[in-house]
Amino acid sequence: MQKNDELCCDDLLQSSINCARGCAFEAITELLWEHPENAEQFKAALEYSVEDKNPAVLFSVLHCAVPMYNIDKTFSKILFDRLLTRDLRILGAQQAWDLLRLFYKSAPGFYAQRLKTAIQSPVDDLKKYAVRMAASLVMMGCWQLEDLMSLPLTEQQMDAVCRQAIIHYKYDETRTYCEQLLRRLTDNNPKLPSLSLLFHQDYLQTSRDQNFIIELLGKRCGGIIVKDVLYYLKTNDIAAKDYSKILFAACKTLLEQETRSMRYHVNDLIFCVAQLFRLGKDDKDVLNQCLDIWDEMYHTYPLSVQPLADLLEQG
Questions:
Q1: Whose CB among 5, 135, 250, 257 lies 3.0–4.6 Å from 164's, allowing a Cys bridge?
Q2: Which of 71, 70, 51 is CA-nearest to residue 61?
Q3: Residue 1 above 50 pLDDT?
Q4: Would you call 161 helix, strand, or coil by DSSP?
Q5: Percent of the chain with pLDDT over 90
Q6: Contacts (Cβ under 8 Å, ≥6 apart) of 310
């Protein structure tokens, strides 16, 4: 059986709803939402509970701090700060991020130091939760990018940051920060599984983001995401000139790799070139770009030309 100090955040969260004291504080949480006028009578119990020997109980106590924010912000912050000081694993509690976001600017040094400690914790899920929060603070402009990227992040943590940046990429107010994060991440680590999500959801606007897509294709991660970029081209309505620039960059990425890389993606390339011929049939520059891509495919993998010619004849 694991000792309390060895349990992960998710285990403690589950334990908090399976113990009597945890259930009691969950009931208090509901009472605070429904009857805020009775808050004073619970404050002493909440203050005392921070020292509970069972760390699972702390998760339920943190839930009480959320409705308390609407009643007495000062007390809610005191409770949250004491819980953080007692056990950083409460960052894995439901709504811990809501409180951190609300209080961060009031004591950035205090919270930043605890986040940095949590990010380097031996507890795996705490490291994940903490680095997600740090990434969100970067996107809020509360943390400097370098403060996060200078930490010794694992590959899993970098991918978690990548996912956060992609989730927030669609929002105008955070996109610049997201691009900065993705640039730094792809400079440091070409293998980011979550990066493919950028091309499979409605995060991108080609007219706005084509230069960023081309930039990513030119990085070490380009050989990994090229299949996702081709999928993006195949499944979205894109202007011919924008399409041709991105497709040419994807082709260039494949040509800079080993010869067999082109073979793995040849069917997608054929489809995209044929589609571009149709989109740009009245644009001489686009047609010339198609022919350049076709020539490159022929020199690298001659067998690709015949099925492409067949598709064009059908069009």
A1: 135
A2: 51
A3: no
A4: helix
A5: 67
A6: none
Look up residue 136 and give its two tokens. 């969100």
User: For tokens 């076709």, what's the residue?
Assistant: 294
- Evaluated on CA atoms 42, 43, 44, 48, the torsion sign reads positive
Closest CA to 76 of 97, 53, 52, 102: 102
Cα separations in angstroms, 184 against 115, 116, 125, 177, 215: 20, 18, 23, 11, 12
Number of residues assigned to the chain: 315
Closest CA to 243 of 231, 233, 228: 233
What is the CA angle 171-160-236, rounded to 5? 50
Phi, psi of 22 (to 5 degrees): -60, -45
Which residue has 């950028």 as its token pair? 198
Element (H, E) at 102: helix 96-103
DSSP 190: S
64-96 tens-digit pLDDT: 999 999 999 999 999 999 999 999 999 999 899
Residues 122-158 pLDDT 10s? 999 999 999 999 999 999 999 999 999 999 999 999 9
Q: 178, 145 in Cβ contact below 8 A?
A: no
Spatial contact of 58 and 5, defined as CB atoms under 8 Å apart: no
pTM of the predicted protein model: 0.87
N-term to C-term CA, the chain: 67
**CB-CB contact of 304 with 298 (8 Å):** yes
Q: Taking phi first (over 0 means left), then psi (-120 to 50 degrees means alpha), and beta for anything else, what does residue 93 get?
A: beta
